[in-house]
Amino acid sequence: MKTCVVGTESTLLTRLTSLSDPPKNLYYQGHLAAFKTIPTVAIVGSRKVTPYGRQVTRQLVRELVAAGVGIISGLALGVDSIAHQTAVDAGGLTLAVLGSGIDNIYPVRHTRLAQSIVEVGGALVSEYPGQTPALPYQFIARNPFQHIGILSLEFHVDKLSRPLL
What strands, in cross-sheet order, belong to the sheet with 40-42? Predict the structure, then answer.
Protein backbone atom coordinates (compact mmCIF):
# COMPACT_ATOMS: atom_id res chain seq x y z
CA MET A 1 0.00 0.00 0.00
CA LYS A 2 1.12 3.53 -0.67
CA THR A 3 1.64 5.87 2.26
CA CYS A 4 0.71 9.53 1.82
CA VAL A 5 1.24 12.52 4.03
CA VAL A 6 -0.80 15.69 4.28
CA GLY A 7 -0.55 18.65 6.55
CA THR A 8 -3.49 18.79 8.93
CA GLU A 9 -4.52 22.10 7.40
CA SER A 10 -5.75 19.93 4.51
CA THR A 11 -9.51 19.82 4.07
CA LEU A 12 -9.39 16.02 4.23
CA LEU A 13 -9.71 15.94 8.02
CA THR A 14 -10.79 19.37 9.14
CA ARG A 15 -12.09 17.84 12.38
CA LEU A 16 -8.50 17.62 13.61
CA THR A 17 -8.46 21.37 14.12
CA SER A 18 -10.74 20.87 17.13
CA LEU A 19 -7.88 19.17 19.00
CA SER A 20 -5.86 21.28 21.43
CA ASP A 21 -2.59 19.97 19.96
CA PRO A 22 -3.28 18.58 16.47
CA PRO A 23 -0.47 16.67 14.73
CA LYS A 24 1.59 18.67 12.23
CA ASN A 25 1.41 15.89 9.65
CA LEU A 26 -0.94 13.03 9.07
CA TYR A 27 0.34 9.86 7.45
CA TYR A 28 -2.30 7.69 5.88
CA GLN A 29 -3.11 4.79 3.63
CA GLY A 30 -6.50 4.53 2.03
CA HIS A 31 -9.36 6.90 1.48
CA LEU A 32 -9.86 9.87 3.81
CA ALA A 33 -12.23 11.99 1.73
CA ALA A 34 -15.40 10.15 2.80
CA PHE A 35 -14.65 10.81 6.47
CA LYS A 36 -14.96 14.53 5.85
CA THR A 37 -18.65 14.25 5.01
CA ILE A 38 -20.10 11.36 7.03
CA PRO A 39 -20.90 11.22 10.74
CA THR A 40 -18.41 9.15 12.72
CA VAL A 41 -18.31 7.44 16.08
CA ALA A 42 -15.18 6.43 17.97
CA ILE A 43 -15.47 2.98 19.53
CA VAL A 44 -12.78 1.99 22.01
CA GLY A 45 -12.78 -0.48 24.84
CA SER A 46 -11.12 -3.32 26.63
CA ARG A 47 -8.45 -5.44 25.03
CA LYS A 48 -9.72 -8.35 27.18
CA VAL A 49 -13.27 -8.23 25.87
CA THR A 50 -15.96 -10.43 27.40
CA PRO A 51 -18.43 -12.41 25.27
CA TYR A 52 -21.08 -9.82 26.18
CA GLY A 53 -18.75 -6.96 25.17
CA ARG A 54 -18.08 -8.69 21.84
CA GLN A 55 -21.82 -9.11 21.21
CA VAL A 56 -22.68 -5.51 22.09
CA THR A 57 -19.80 -4.11 20.03
CA ARG A 58 -20.88 -6.07 16.96
CA GLN A 59 -24.53 -5.12 17.34
CA LEU A 60 -23.74 -1.44 17.89
CA VAL A 61 -21.37 -1.26 14.92
CA ARG A 62 -23.82 -3.03 12.59
CA GLU A 63 -26.53 -0.54 13.59
CA LEU A 64 -24.24 2.45 13.14
CA VAL A 65 -23.00 1.26 9.75
CA ALA A 66 -26.59 0.65 8.61
CA ALA A 67 -27.32 4.28 9.57
CA GLY A 68 -24.40 5.51 7.45
CA VAL A 69 -22.02 6.21 10.32
CA GLY A 70 -18.25 5.67 9.95
CA ILE A 71 -16.37 3.87 12.71
CA ILE A 72 -13.14 5.19 14.24
CA SER A 73 -11.01 3.00 16.48
CA GLY A 74 -7.43 2.11 17.27
CA LEU A 75 -6.80 -1.32 15.67
CA ALA A 76 -5.87 -2.68 19.11
CA LEU A 77 -6.79 -6.11 20.41
CA GLY A 78 -10.30 -6.58 21.73
CA VAL A 79 -13.08 -4.05 21.19
CA ASP A 80 -11.09 -1.97 18.68
CA SER A 81 -10.45 -4.82 16.25
CA ILE A 82 -13.98 -6.18 16.69
CA ALA A 83 -15.38 -2.75 15.77
CA HIS A 84 -13.18 -2.50 12.67
CA GLN A 85 -13.88 -6.07 11.51
CA THR A 86 -17.63 -5.70 12.02
CA ALA A 87 -17.66 -2.45 10.05
CA VAL A 88 -15.74 -4.11 7.20
CA ASP A 89 -18.06 -7.14 7.25
CA ALA A 90 -21.13 -4.88 7.23
CA GLY A 91 -19.85 -2.89 4.24
CA GLY A 92 -19.17 0.25 6.25
CA LEU A 93 -16.29 2.68 6.42
CA THR A 94 -13.81 2.49 9.24
CA LEU A 95 -10.76 4.56 10.16
CA ALA A 96 -7.93 3.01 12.20
CA VAL A 97 -5.89 5.45 14.27
CA LEU A 98 -2.47 3.88 14.83
CA GLY A 99 -0.07 4.35 17.71
CA SER A 100 2.81 3.38 15.40
CA GLY A 101 4.06 4.33 11.96
CA ILE A 102 1.71 3.62 9.10
CA ASP A 103 4.05 0.96 7.67
CA ASN A 104 4.41 -0.82 11.02
CA ILE A 105 1.01 -2.30 11.87
CA TYR A 106 0.68 -3.15 15.55
CA PRO A 107 -0.29 -5.68 16.65
CA VAL A 108 1.20 -7.56 13.70
CA ARG A 109 -1.69 -10.03 13.70
CA HIS A 110 -3.96 -7.18 12.54
CA THR A 111 -2.04 -6.64 9.30
CA ARG A 112 -4.72 -8.40 7.23
CA LEU A 113 -7.48 -6.44 8.99
CA ALA A 114 -5.62 -3.21 8.20
CA GLN A 115 -5.44 -4.22 4.53
CA SER A 116 -9.16 -5.04 4.52
CA ILE A 117 -10.01 -1.63 5.98
CA VAL A 118 -8.26 0.08 3.07
CA GLU A 119 -9.65 -2.33 0.45
CA VAL A 120 -13.27 -1.52 1.39
CA GLY A 121 -12.74 2.26 1.24
CA GLY A 122 -11.57 3.05 4.77
CA ALA A 123 -8.23 4.35 5.95
CA LEU A 124 -5.33 3.94 8.34
CA VAL A 125 -3.95 7.12 9.88
CA SER A 126 -1.03 7.99 12.12
CA GLU A 127 0.87 11.04 13.19
CA TYR A 128 4.05 8.90 13.09
CA PRO A 129 6.03 8.32 9.88
CA GLY A 130 6.83 5.03 8.17
CA GLN A 131 8.33 2.34 10.34
CA THR A 132 8.01 4.15 13.68
CA PRO A 133 7.68 1.39 16.30
CA ALA A 134 4.71 1.11 18.63
CA LEU A 135 5.77 2.66 21.94
CA PRO A 136 3.52 2.97 25.03
CA TYR A 137 3.36 6.79 25.10
CA GLN A 138 2.20 6.88 21.47
CA PHE A 139 -0.95 4.94 22.31
CA ILE A 140 -1.86 7.51 24.93
CA ALA A 141 -1.14 10.33 22.45
CA ARG A 142 -3.52 8.87 19.84
CA ASN A 143 -6.54 8.85 22.17
CA PRO A 144 -7.57 12.50 21.64
CA PHE A 145 -7.20 11.88 17.91
CA GLN A 146 -9.80 9.10 18.14
CA HIS A 147 -12.16 11.48 19.90
CA ILE A 148 -12.85 13.34 16.67
CA GLY A 149 -15.41 10.57 16.24
CA ILE A 150 -17.01 11.24 19.60
CA LEU A 151 -17.35 14.93 18.80
CA SER A 152 -19.08 13.98 15.57
CA LEU A 153 -21.46 11.62 17.39
CA GLU A 154 -22.68 14.43 19.62
CA PHE A 155 -23.54 16.46 16.55
CA HIS A 156 -25.12 13.73 14.40
CA VAL A 157 -26.84 11.28 16.73
CA ASP A 158 -30.17 13.09 16.46
CA LYS A 159 -30.18 12.35 12.71
CA LEU A 160 -30.39 8.58 13.16
CA SER A 161 -33.81 7.26 12.23
CA ARG A 162 -33.98 4.45 14.78
CA PRO A 163 -32.57 3.47 18.17
CA LEU A 164 -28.96 2.24 18.15
CA LEU A 165 -29.69 -0.96 20.12
Answer: 4-7, 25-30, 123-126, 94-97, 70-73, 40-42
Domains of the chain, start order: 4-12+23-157 (3.40.50.450)
Is the alpha carbon torsion for 65, 56, 116, 1 positive or negative?
A: positive
User: Which alpha helices (DSSP H) does 1-158 contain, by range?
Assistant: 51-66, 79-89, 111-119, 136-146, 148-156
The per-residue pLDDT for range 19-49, each reduced to its tens digit, is: 566 666 778 888 888 887 888 888 888 778 8
pLDDT tens digits, 118-156: 999 999 988 787 677 666 555 454 454 544 444 333 333
Residue 62 CA to its chain's centroid (Å): 15
Strands 123-126 and 70-73: unpaired
Secondary structure (DSSP) of 39-84: -EEE----SS--HHHHHHHHHHHHHHHHTT-EEEE---TTHHHHHH
53 near 45, Cβ under 8 Å?
Answer: yes
Arithmetic mean of pLDDT over the chain: 76
pTM here is 0.77
Q: Name residue 96's beta-bridge partners.
A: 73, 124
